[in-house]
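Summary for the lay section of the report: proteins are chains of building blocks that fold into shapes. Here we show the chain for N-acetyltransferase domain-containing protein and then a coded description of the shape we predicted for it.
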Amino acid sequence: MTGFVWPLPSADVVGDLPDGGTLRLRAPVDADLDGLVVSGRDASSLRFTALPENYSRADAALFLRSMRHSPDMMLWIVDDPDNPGHFGGTLEVRLVNRPAATVELGYTTAPHLRGRGLMTAVVRLITEFLFDYGVHRVQITANPENVASCRVALGAGYRHEGTLREAECLRGVWNDLELFAQLDGDL
Ligand SMILES: CC(C)(COP(=O)(O)OP(=O)(O)OC[C@H]1O[C@@H](n2cnc3c(N)ncnc32)[C@H](O)[C@@H]1OP(=O)(O)O)[C@@H](O)C(=O)NCCC(=O)NCCS
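The coded shape description reads as follows.
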């Protein structure tokens, strides 16, 4: 355990998948743009995130650029475990409160890799990494109707702390958000 460091080291984060495969979180490259577009156009991504409709390569390129220069967000690409070097998803870490060493996760799994435990493994891996770098509290918020996202948080060992009422406004609709968190002392 070390003191809290922000920005975090942006090196690859590597671990194991439950099926024995290798899980790799890596820096984005231009070749990820196509995968970002496919993910960004997927119906559940559109339903549960603030992505624009008809998500384009230009939107994806702007997203990568803005993440590169953001003072309070970091992005890793989840490498496709079946096809190393290809896009398998995104993992964002957002700084919530520096003095409280608190960050929040955001994530997407590429549609062709969903439902096989990938994001649960990613969240477990990055949470361990974050605690190694002095993070005290990691949060996840999800729409209660986003069952897969809530299951990811619980499956990765997060505790459900409550419901934030109308904490999000997406395309003119107010949504409650379930709040999940893990503390470094919970491990
Ligand atoms: C949410 C998301 C990242 C989950 O990724 P994933 O790699 O498929 O997740 P996992 O395979 O680790 O599944 C986790 C759990 O969700 C369940 N699950 C997966 N898809 C589901 C679905 N469509 N409906 C209900 N449960 C689902 C799995 O069965 C698993 O449950 P378990 O732990 O009880 O076995 C993915 O569905 C996604 O990218 N959605 C669109 C973007 C999004 O909603 N991001 C989160 C915003 S808060």
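Put simply, here is one thing we learned. The longest strand covers residues 159-170.
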